Amino acid sequence: MSVKFEWRKKEKSLYIPKAKPELVNVPKLNYITLSGEGGPAAKEFTECIAALYPLAYAIKMQPKKLEVKPKGYYDYTVYPLEGVWDITEQAKQNFTGNINKEDLVYKLMLRQPEFVDDSFFQAMLELTKKSQAAKKRPTALLDKIAFETITEGKCIQMLHIGKYDDEVKSFNEMEAFAETEGLIRLSKVHREVYLSDFRKTAPEKLKTTLRFQVT
Questions:
Q1: Residue 132: pLDDT band with limits 50, 70, 90
Q2: What's the gap between Cα 33 and its chain centre?
Q3: What angle do the packed helices 118-134 and 43-61 form, to 10 degrees?
Q4: DSSP conformational letter for 8
Q5: How many beta carbons lie within 10 A of that of residue 124, not counting itself?
Q6: What is the mean pLDDT of the chain?
Q7: Strand 22-37 to strand 104-112: parallel, antiparallel, or no bridges (unpaired)?
Q8: How much of the chain is helix, strand and coil, in % rounded to 5?
């Protein structure tokens, strides 16, 4: 009997850091991704999440039904939702120091195991589209999902506990840590790994891994 790969146990250094800044080297990883604009409260943000998860679960569950499984297949726990955040180019040109949530742009993503390649992704995407259509659920966003391989490289990260609006405090700590280490933040773009379900968790208890690239 094969043992399920649990990212919370096997990859704690990537996903569950301590609540203080630390250096990490993030290797090349596969993701399904979906991009959008606006803040987390926007309807489109929720719709993007709702589009990603059925595909992620198809990728996880469908191989169990196949006689010939994808090369290198293993059972695993679905990875947490992640988001890379930036602001629009126009907002950058007119930046005053305050960020309007309507100016946010994001790329939401769910990491995929090594056995997932573009061919398998496309097959599972078509399967998910048919399944969602049969359930009379919208499928337009499924056509916008991409399969990407991303390498973040050298980063600073830390666990943020609390409201999303209070993340600036943690980012200030991370930037101070970068300075003491003689490192430079590459840009204001950052990644968030959502360890808590924001629909079920009190804002002050939310756990989010924050990360940005450095050189």
A1: very high
A2: 8
A3: 110
A4: H
A5: 24
A6: 94
A7: antiparallel
A8: 40, 30, 35
Contact between 145 and 33 under an 8 Å Cβ cutoff? The reply is yes
Dist. CA 178–CA 190, nearest whole Å: 14
Residue 1 clears pLDDT 60, i.e. is over it? no
- Using 50, 70 and 90 to split pLDDT, how confident is the model at 52? very high
Query: Taking residues 136-147, what's their average pLDDT?
Result: 94
Helix (H, G, I), strand (E, B) or coil at 197: coil
User: What domain count does the chain have?
Assistant: 1
State CA 197 to chain mean position distance.
Answer: 13
**Distances in whole angstroms, Cα of residue 10 to Cα of each of 76, 81, 186:** 11, 17, 28
State the CATH number of the domain containing residue 66.
3.20.80.10
Do the beta carbons of residue 32 and residue 110 sit within 8 Å?
A: yes
Domain that holds residue 67: 7-213
Contacts 24+ apart (CB under 8 A), 3-8: 3/75, 4/75, 4/76, 4/77, 5/74, 5/75, 5/76, 5/77, 5/113, 6/76, 6/77, 7/76, 7/77, 7/79, 7/80, 8/77
For the chain, report the end-to-end CA distance as a whole number of angstroms.
Answer: 44
Domain assignment present for 87: yes
Q: 94: which DSSP letter? A: T
